[in-house]
Structures are given as structure tokens and as C-alpha cells.
Amino acid sequence: MGVTAVQNRIGGERSRASDGATFERRNPADHREVVSTAPESTEQDVAAAVEAAQKALPRWAATGPSERAVLLERAAVVLEQRADELARALVAEEGKPFKDARNETVRTPGNLRLYAGEALRLNGETFASDDPGATVATAVGPVGVVGVITPWNFPLTLASRKIAPALAAGNTVVFKPSPLTPLMGDVLADIFDEAGLPPGVLNVVHGFAAGAHLVGNDSVGAVTFTGSTATGAKIRSVIGLGRRLQMELGGKNPVVVLEDADLDAAAAVVAQSSFSLTGQACTGAGRILVDDAVHDGLLERVVALAGKHVLGPGMREDVTMGPLVEEAARDTMIAAVEQAVTAGATVACGGEPPQGDAVEHGWFFPPTVLADVTPDMEIAREEVFGPIIGFERVQGLDDALQRANASRYGLTASICTTSLAAAQRFCAEMEAGMVKVNRPTIGAAPNAPFGGIKHSGTETHKEQLGHTVMDFYTRYRTVVVGI
Ligand code: NAD
How confident is the model at residue 460 (pLDDT cuts 50, 70, 90)? Predict the structure, then answer.
């Protein structure tokens, strides 16, 4: 693949940063290869994009729901037609294996369709009125200009879950993709262009500082953000009265394995939760809370599954685990293992960068299982966003629940058990936006609400996926009409 020179999209025009600055993105499986370059947008560039979105707003807000639904449906078709080609570009830019990349390009159209349907279902209510001459009703409309800020780990899927509902409700958008996946951001804009979205309805600005510029622009009525808890905290401090904010943040997601669990099935749940996408899924598990009675049996099985992973460039058919997204992420893994070992953890497998021709020029790190982890250790408390898990011994469900809930995060959690009573209690008492039984922590039903609680989001659980997100993108007013 050659180098793609990505540009901003402002009011239907492609443009460079006003001061000409650019940055480059390299293939994380082979950092000698530059995949894309993109503009490092200035505050003025971002302001121009917001202005373009404001200008396009009245016309787009006045379109009928059918027109908006048809457009989203058309975009879904365009994306489907390009699924293979885009999956290859996604492998080069983000690093995930082709099968996972294709899974993303094939699933994203479903999000566009889901919200095409929601455009048609936008409605208000009428209320019984004490005033016999008056009708009391809610009127629904868009919020205005929506700022969409996304991470790199699912650059198409996560952006589509925000852009599609925003457009479905009649908002216009300024989209700021991750600087680690500018090409995928550009691709999404291309798809909407090809589907016939009018100029200015979806604008795209790139860069490391562009997110802060977007958040700082008071003409952006709503900001929807997915990314780390640290960035989320910064954004929250900037958004003042009269502006909306929705956030999906990090997690330290636990898998609890009780004594009565089917151990082979539980090991598969743990391995899938922890090592899929090189551990770079927000819903991935980092803490394995295992009943003492089955601890050693589970550890042995998970280590065996970890050993089956083949690391290498994502286009190779036998590869099941791609690289970490960048050098700093690989260095974070090395430091996390060192710190855990110093604190008393032991390395059951992995723990240091692999050797060999296939991985020589990439940011690879193997599936790593740490044993003897205790709740006070950093590795038990903070997200590492990579394929490292810590096994902690627990004594039964009470202990497991207490430990699992003693976390500032609350994104996903899973329990492996054959006891219906234990499963029910876990579902009732586990403080997480998504709780699962005998299923991996990763993966979300596309049509059901999902979102983090505590420091993993904005505490509503319903702000990503499902029909409930439409509340964020719509403004309701109560209207009383007398005669
Ligand atoms: P990040 O917070 O570093 O960056 C996310 C986005 O925010 C990027 O586009 C970045 O450029 C932008 N940004 C950075 N500083 C900003 C600022 N001050 N103001 C506005 N925008 C700013 O996160 P990341 O490394 O891209 O993604 C990994 C993180 O995302 C992990 O913590 C992961 O758990 C989380 N994540 C959460 C979910 C979820 O649904 N809860 C899904 C995917 C990823």
C-alpha cells in the first residue's frame, strides 16, 4: 500500500491545516512503513469546520426522517461494497488481524441501518390536559452541531455509533478521528460523500490537538467522546452549562470464576475476554478473580490457550494476534509487567516482547498471564489496554463481588458459574454497565443499550448502542397549544 495523504473535510472541501502542519501514521506491525499522513489542525481549522456545520444545520434539520434514513441506508450499502478493501486498510493502519478487521467493516453498516430506523421512529408524546382548550405535547428536534471524538481501536464501528444517530436526528457533525487512525476517519467521510450527504453536514478535522479545540468551541452543542478516562476527565472540566456531554471511557473489567464453573468453558471465556484484539478492547478483561479451589486448574488452561496465539502482521492468515497500536503502548506493557513483578506477582506466561522475523519491526507483545496478583497492586486497579491479565485468588462469591466492585471503573464484568443463584446475584450486585454470565466481557449486542458507569462513562449505561442513544442527540420541548 502507498502512503495516503488524508485531508480535513470542511464544508464539502478538502483542505490542509492552515499552517501546513502534518503528522504521519505508521504501520504498527512494521513501523518502517508510513500508511498515512494527515493535517495537524489548528484552532482556526476546527472553528472553520464548526462554522461549516452550523451553516449546513438549518437545511439538514429540515429534511424529513425518510430522507435521512435513506441516506444512512445508502451509506451502509457503500460501506458493504468496500468491506474487503477497507478491512485491508484497517489492518495496515491499526494492526488488527484481517478477520477482525473484516468483522468491523462488515458490522459497521448494521449501525448505520439501526439509526436509519431510529430516524423514522423519532416521536414526541401528547399528554392529557387539564386545560380543555389546549393540546400539551412534546416536540422533538436536533441539538445542533455535534462534536464526535473517537479512539483508534474500532475506528469505524465506534464512529458510526455516534455519527449515524447524530445525523438521524437532524444534527450536523464535526468528527475528530484518532490521530492513530486518520485514514479510517477519512474513509467514513468518503462513504457518506458517496452516499450523497450534503456538504457541511459531516465535517472531519484531524490532529492531536484538534479534539481539545473542538471541545473548547462553545458553538458545539453536544460532545460525544469515546476514549480514556484521563481524557474524559479533561473534557468534562471544559463542558459548561448549556452544552451536552456523553462519554464512554476505560475499564478494568473482571471475570469471576467460581468453584462450580465448567473450567474448559471458563478458560475460553477468560482467553477471549483478555487476548482478543491484543487486549485493546475497552470491554476486555484485565482481572481474573478465581475461586481458590479451581485457581490452579484455570491458570493452567488459560496459559495453554495463551500459548496458541500466533503473533505477526494481520494480513498473514495464521496470525491471531496483531501488534499493539504504537511504541508507547508496547512500552507500557513492559513497564506494567516489571512493576507487577516488583510488587510480588509472578509471570505464568509471556511478559516480554517476542523475538523473530515476523515481529521484528512491529510493536508486539505476547498474551501475558500474571499470577499472585493482589488487589492493592496497580495491575489490579488500572487499565493497561493490552494483553496482560492478573489472576487473583478469591474465596467464594461474596469475596469476588466485594473485590470486583472495589474499583473506580464499571464498564463490563462476567461470571463463570453453573449456579443460577450465583449468576443472579452477580447480575444484581455487580456495578458495571454490562454484566454477563458464561460469556466473554467483550462484545456488545448492537441493538441493546451499552455504556459504562462509575469512571467508565457518564453514568447512564445507555449512551452507546441501542435506541436509547437517541435521547442524547435530540432536544425535546414541551409545547402547549390553546385555541
Ligand atoms: P484517548 O483518550 O487517548 O483518545 C481518544 C480521542 O480523544 C482521540 O481522538 C484523541 O485525539 C482525543 N483527545 C485527546 N486529548 C483530548 C482532549 N484534551 N480533548 C478532546 N479530545 C482529546 O484514548 P485512545 O488511546 O484513543 O483509546 C483507548 C481508550 O479508549 C481506552 O482507555 C479504552 O478503554 C477507551 N475506550 C472505551 C470504549 C467504551 O466504549 N467505553 C471503547 C473503546 C475505547
Answer: confident
- The answer, yes or no, to whether any atom of ligand 1 lies below 6 A from the CB of 464, is yes
List C-alpha distances in Å: 148 to 33, 173, 279, 333: 29, 7, 24, 29
The amino acid at residue 216 is: G
Q: Residue 211 C-alpha to ligand 1 middle, in angstroms?
A: 10
Q: At what angle do helices 420-429 and 396-405 cross, to 10 degrees?
A: 20
From 152, 208, 228, give the residue whose CB has the most ligand 1 atoms within 8 Å, as the site to mutate.
Answer: 228
Closest residue by CA, ligand 1 atom 42: 282
Top mutation candidate among 178, 231, 277, 461 for ligand 1, by most atoms within 8 Å of CB: 231
Residues 6+ apart with CB under 8 A from 46: 174, 176, 205, 210, 213, 214, 217
Our answer on whether the CB atom of 325 is closer than 6 Å to any ligand 1 atom is no
Q: Is 179 in the pocket of ligand 1 (CB under 6 A)?
A: yes
Q: Known catalytic residue: 282?
A: yes
pLDDT tens digits along 280-317: 999 999 999 999 999 999 999 999 999 999 999 999 99
Give the model confidence (pLDDT) of 317-365 as tens digits: 999 999 999 999 999 999 999 999 999 999 999 999 999 999 999 999 9
Contact yes or no for 419/193 (Cβ under 8 A): no
Pairing of strands 285-291, 253-257: parallel
371 contacts 351 by C-beta, under 8 angstroms: no
